[in-house]
Amino acid sequence: MTDPRLDTLPKLLLHNAARWPDRPAMREKEFGIWNVYTWADYRDRVREIALGLAALGVRRGEVVALLGRNRPNWVWGELAAHALGCMSLGIYEDVLPVEAGYLVGYAEAAVIFCEDEEQVDKILQLGTAASSLRWIVYHDDRGMRKYGDPRLVSWAELVRRGKELDRAERDRFEREVAAGRGSDVAILCTTSGTTSNPKLAMLQHEPFLRHIRAYLEVDPRGPDDEYVSILPLPWIMEQVYTVAMPLLCGIRANFPESAETAMRDLREIGPTHLLLAPRVWEQTAADIRARILDAGPLTRRLFDWAVRVGTAAVERGDRDRLADLLVFGALRDRLGFARVKSAATGGAALGPDTFKFFLAMGVPLRQLYGQTELSGAYTLQVHDELDTDSSGVPFPDTEVRIEDPDENGVGEIVTRHAGMFKGYFKNEEATREALTPDGWMRTGDAGYFDAKGRLVVIDRVKDIARTSTGIRFSPQFIENKLKFSPYIGEAVVLGNRRPFVTAILCIRYSMVSKWAESRRIGFTTYQNLAANRQVVDLLASEVEKVNASLPEGQRIRRFVVLYKELDPDDGEVTRTRKVRRSVIDERYAAIIEAMYAGRDRVHVDTVVTFEDGRTGRIEADLEIRDTSARTTFAQAA
Questions:
Q1: 464-636 is classed in which CATH architecture?
Q2: pLDDT digits (tens, 9 = 90+) for 599-612
Q3: N or C: which end of the chain has fewer CB within 10 A?
């Protein structure tokens, strides 16, 4: 039975530290060594930081922002803010200064934790946009001696001040934690912001924790389980998995040394639970195929056979034991998936072919569905049931209905449960638009319930498209089928109020470059490789495969291979890799118009933003390619 007194995250931390002081709570790999932090260590670090913030004058109800990669100190800083009754605001580490400035300024953050000099530089560039900031706390002090901003304070100095206050007021930390209430807003979590600046969903302690308890009812885990924190901590689902779930069930959170070593570090831990974004599952599948390309003919044939028979077995509701013995068992072990009891993907749809690939491999992968405003996921697929189309069934605490369904039962997904957000921070108008008068959340997604009561999510309501000939289609559905190809990294499908469907494609550079090298095709850059005619031929064959699986009216008639990847720094996708369709429509209007005008080439001359914030000019002539579907369409016309 849940103790009603444990209604905030810091109260749970104190409870766990008292109950299991010596049990490992988290690990971090640094300089090749895994450092272990017990529940007592976790509590003591949070105590030092919270009291350090109090010594700096941070007050209850203020906002504390965090900017950096996934590390224990990120979580400690967040819990320290909560212990003082402050709201935490996570900011994606790869944001541009202008994006960080908007969030810090809008939230009027009083303090920001920065990982290192790179992140501090972003904040110091903001000027008056960060006028609310009284303190900038940095963790890594390399390169910081040259700075003289009076708001800067090192992590070590913050801890020193915290220890000093602790000696002066021995029970101060416990008193601050006890003053917290379950109804207090704990987290300001950014929405995806596909059409505008992100909104800040206000998540309260007790409702947030209550909903995660419902999650644990359908997907249990405990102190003997392991989780590796790979997805960005500002994302709602990483808040659920890395911050809240360990406090509720004791699962250990593990932090890789860097993004580059994450998959290797995952193999060392051997997690029992996994949460990866669709793009990570897609990239993992592509990397496997890339390695197979480097193998000998016998290995390639064996792999292809295992995938074929393994997928067929999955479709029968079974596993192929011989394929598992000869190929998939070793592959799971190499990837670090050997101990996985539950794996999930969410944030966007995952193509059915990618899904079946991992199921054939023996990875118990399931799709979940939810929103930031609904405390993350609230539906999950049922174990041991082949289901590549739906997002599963709602949690026990959740109600889901379909608003204004059409003749096929498709309408807007509307949801409510006791753990949903309080509203949008400083945006009552947006809150009123999102919530119905009786407290249901309008998700903006289109979907329906299948015959088994499972929720099938089609696309964003506003993105469901209809050609000028009256054919209805989901761009996202076709995009996911395209991205199962190991050679297609991103796809944007077009055709709303147009005579037929077209696509803008981006190559998956890691895979296409290996393919080109194996055929002695010369190239120097991404742009150069994407423009190669043989590469365009390769992607054309992949498009034809997808077209063969689509109804005639939804087939892609023409496509173009873009000269660059879609980039969040250019505003083309969000930080969670969701396509900003309005930006694509505007930025690539000339390319889109050329495809529909029947031209076979289009010249582009544009400016792109690099990772360090610099801009550069790109000039290119892009080939526009017809597919066989276009030929059929023209003949019929």
A1: 2-Layer Sandwich (3.30)
A2: 999 998 877 665 55
A3: N
